[in-house]
Amino acid sequence: MKISTIKDELNSLAYHGRGIIIGKSADGKKAVTAYFIMGRSENSRNRVFVAEGDAMRTKAFDESKMIDPHLIIYYPVRVLGNKTIVTNGDQTDTIYQLMDKQMTFEQALRTREFEDDKPNFTPRISGIIHRENGDINYAMSILKSAEGDDSSCERFTYAYSNPIAGKAKFIHTYNGDGNPLPSYEGEPKTLELPDLDIDALTDLIWTNLNEDNKVSLFVRYIDIESGESDTRIVNKNA
């Protein structure tokens, strides 16, 4: 399996759309997750990330320029006990609410499909980190149209137990720019997770996202033993 550096992978495309990275730190002590958004339209670029307790939401940077909040404003991050949920849409709330009712991550996502933004039918990508017994396991999911046909939804879930320290998985919505936008294909990519503190990793990711298209970045380190977390948020519209 190909293992890429964060720098090389982020520079491989000018437009990833939205992306989720989840892994275990090089010292094996922390769960690491990152979520970024990119945008092409003025409406999509007119956003910032805002922390709200241990959750995080999107917000219009300039409310007067917000055309349509549909698919733009949502909670990408929520925490449910020892589980951290990260997604690219309001399916965060679906996962949170249904897992709170004892459904699984995969069962919760079976109630959802890709986004209704014809002709792109943007995939819904989701991740969840579970701390348990001094370690973590995590899963990633993508819900996408079948070759751009909105009559069929393809569902893929990838689960990772006893993840290797210093490695992460990366999934994003698009395989580059285009009209319509080409959906992501294949399983999540494997990335090297360098031995960096949260500020250095945040800078590494932000610096290597396409300058014209990047909008916002969220990075969180979660202590596997205690559950204590440290978060960074970077917004292009600051």
Characterise this structure:
By secondary structure, the protein is mainly beta. The protein has one domain (3-235): Glutamine Phosphoribosylpyrophosphate, subunit 1, domain 1 (4-Layer Sandwich), CATH 3.60.20.20. It has helices at 6-10, 42-45, 91-99, 105-109, 198-208, and strands spanning 3-4, 18-24, 30-38, 47-52, 55-60, 77-80, 83-87, 124-132, 135-146, 149-161, 167-172, 189-192, 214-223, 229-235. The chain is globular.
Q: Any descriptors?
A:
seven-stranded mixed sheet; mainly beta; 238 residues; 5 helices; five-stranded antiparallel sheet; Glutamine Phosphoribosylpyrophosphate, subunit 1, domain 1; 14 strands
Brief characterization of the structure:
The protein has helices at 6-10, 42-45, 91-99, 105-109, 198-208, and strands at 3-4, 18-24, 30-38, 47-52, 55-60, 77-80, 83-87, 124-132, 135-146, 149-161, 167-172, 189-192, 214-223, 229-235. With 238 residues, the protein is mainly beta. The protein has one domain: 4-Layer Sandwich (Glutamine Phosphoribosylpyrophosphate, subunit 1, domain 1).
